[in-house]
Amino acid sequence: MATSDSTTGDHADHFRHSYTRDKAQLVRRLARIEGQVRGISRMIEREEYCVDILQQTSALRAAVDSLAVLVLEDHVQGCVRTAAQRGEADRYVDEVVDVVRRTLGRPVRAAARTETPARS
């Protein structure tokens, strides 16, 4: 039995991660993102024009957001759907809402944290 302080730590015990069917695609996207980061680093080392660097950081942010949306979609369609079928949807829905709020830079609502495991 897994023990974890976060609500996400024990999910591997219950579900196959939904993104595993898209794993190769996600890894390719991450490799492209790595390339973008290295490119921005080279631009800074070469002291390129600030606006060009800002455009590249904007493209990087869009690439990361796109990756996050794919993982979120897979999570909702797989993990949350499975949790709903098992009668555990509330915990997972709260978790998704918290993650979306953090992603958008919004504070996590304290009331959304209904399940806080007690630790000895």
The number of helices is 3
Mean pLDDT: 79
CATH-derived architecture: Up-down Bundle
Count of separate structural domains: 1
Question: What's the assembly state of these chains?
Answer: single chain
DSSP E strands, number: 0
Question: How big is the Rg?
Answer: 18 Å
Indicate the CATH topology: Methane Monooxygenase Hydroxylase, Chain G, domain 1
H-E string = HHH
Give the uncertain stretches in residue-range form: 1-9, 114-120
The major β-sheet equals: none
According to CATH, the homologous superfamily is: Metal-sensitive repressor, helix protomer
- The helix content is 55-70%
Question: What is the general shape?
Answer: elongated
How would you describe the overall organization of this protein?
The longest helix is centred in the middle third of the chain and has 36 residues, at 50-85. The chain starts with 22 loop residues before the first helix and ends in a 17-residue tail after the last helix. The protein has one domain: Metal-sensitive repressor, helix protomer (Methane Monooxygenase Hydroxylase, Chain G, domain 1, Up-down Bundle), CATH 1.20.58. It has 3 helices and no strands. The chain has 120 residues and is mainly α. Residues 1-9 and 114-120 have low confidence and may be disordered.
Topology, pairings included?
Elements: H1 23-45, H2 50-85, H3 89-103
Helix pairs in contact: 1-2, 2-3
What are its keywords?
mainly alpha, 120 residues, Methane Monooxygenase Hydroxylase, Chain G, domain 1, 3 helices, disordered N terminus
